[in-house]
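During the practical work, I worked with a single protein chain and the C-alpha cells that describe its fold, as given directly below.
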Amino acid sequence: MKMLLFDTEYFWYDTFSKTLENVGDIKKEEKIETTAVVFMHVELEDEERKNKIIKNAVKTFKWYLNKVDKERIVLHSFAHLSSSTSSPEFAAEIISEIKEKLINKGIEVHTTPFGYFSEFSIHVRGESLAKIFKEI
C-alpha cells in the first residue's frame, strides 16, 4: 500500500463520474474541515498480506493524526500511486476495515465514494509534516 498523507485546513469533494459498474449510484458533495487526508493505493501484493496492511495502516494513521494534532481523517482511494493495483473489491474491503478499526479507536473517519472520480479541492498546510509519503 502506498499513501500520501496531508494535514489540511479543509478537503472538499464532489462525485464526478462512476468508474466501476458494480457500485451504487451516488451523488455526494462534502467539505471536511481541520482534517488529515489520506490518498491511498492498495496494491496487488497487498492481497497476500491483508491483516498486516490493515494493522500497519491503522498504526500509521493514528501516528499521523497525533503528529498533526487532528481528530478526524478522510480516506480517499487514489489508484495512481503505483502500477501494481489490487482488485477493486479488495481495495474497497481494505478501506472499509481500516475505517471500522479507526472508528473503534474513537477517530472520526470520512471516506469518499469508492468507484468514483471526484472533483476535489484541498488546502494543505505548509509545515514539513503536512505532506508525507508512506509505503507499507
In short: The longest helix spans residues 50-67. The chain has a mean pLDDT of 94. The longest strand covers residues 2-18.
